[in-house]
Amino acid sequence: MEKGLTQERLAEKTELSLTVIQKVETGQSGSRLETLIRIALALGVSLDILMDMKESDEQYRDWREEVYLLVRDKTVGEVKFAIAVADSIFRYKDEFLD
Q1: d(CA 20, CA 82)
Q2: What φ, ψ does residue 91 adopt, rounded to 5°?
């Protein structure tokens, strides 16, 4: 996917290190959702496009698009906060759900 950004400029726009951008691009490490959201926002694409989802992943397409739409106009700080809240909810859900 070509958006005319250098890795350095993408790192600046996402507030991620150049090393993280390089590892994501080359697939050298698993990426956190927060990282992928930042990159998708900087590139102006949805997560499914960023991740080049296969048809077998179609079941996740709708919720990924919803997440993207929720965060696309938020600041990095707001996205971090939302991810931390979601992480806490999932971590403690078993205590509250049957």
Answers
A1: 21
A2: -65, -35
